Predict the 3D structure of the following.
Amino acid sequence: MLEIRNLHAKVKDKEILKGVDLDLNDNETLALLGPNGHGKSTLLAVIMGHPNFEVTEGSITLDGKDVLAMSVDERSKAGLFLGMQYPSEIPGVNSSDFLRAAMNVRQEKPLSLYAFYSKLQNAYKEMGIPFEMSNRNLNEGFSGGEKKRNEILQMRLLDPRYIMLDEIDSGLDVDAMQVVAKAIEKEQAAGKGFLVVSHYARLYEMIRPTRTAIMVNGRIAVSGGPELYRKIDTEGYEWIKRDLGISVEKEDGPMNKVSIGTCATKEALKKK
């Protein structure tokens, strides 16, 4: 189990997470929704160990082990994976060299060149990415959709246990979305745990989450079944104020009308 308790985190002097409690088990897919700027991306970044964020209170454990005491590479080797909303371009780092190194540190014995390229070719074919792109620098000059598919390609090759996807569907056309969804379904069938952030119901309908959690004001306001993301899709977040009496500190429009928007983290960094 990935267990988060009373998690508080800030960027610079701005508190983003204000007491998050959340569990993620093997063999379940958790849809994480909420208005823009309320902490969804921050939560995923903190779990993975992004250096811009300072955890001021609370805990994250993986099978009882203290995740916050781990370095980023240790978290990755322990089975955590983050498919990023804005994958970075890394000039000078060859894509296939990067993937081979990342795969080998997870093996007792390094993969043979033949075994590596066999896995690599199959993954590129599965993701609908030309194999020639494996010789390019990591994400450099890639389109937005190519970067997102490249994140899922990494997911398939690194074989993590708990997979966090931060708006992996943004920038994808319908065909690419179906390719990504099929790759996710294969990991789901293998019993992996997923924490998936999206503003839109389209991806959720494809990957069929088992649970839904809604983050408001830096906390989990309500959790339940798949019916919750469908309610957000049709009604927006007004019912949270109406039914739960929770005042939304930063207003946003209905989920099916909102753009990707600006996250609170970027706004805080910009002001500095």
Observations:
- DSSP finds ten helices and twelve strands in the chain.
- The radius of gyration is 18 Å.
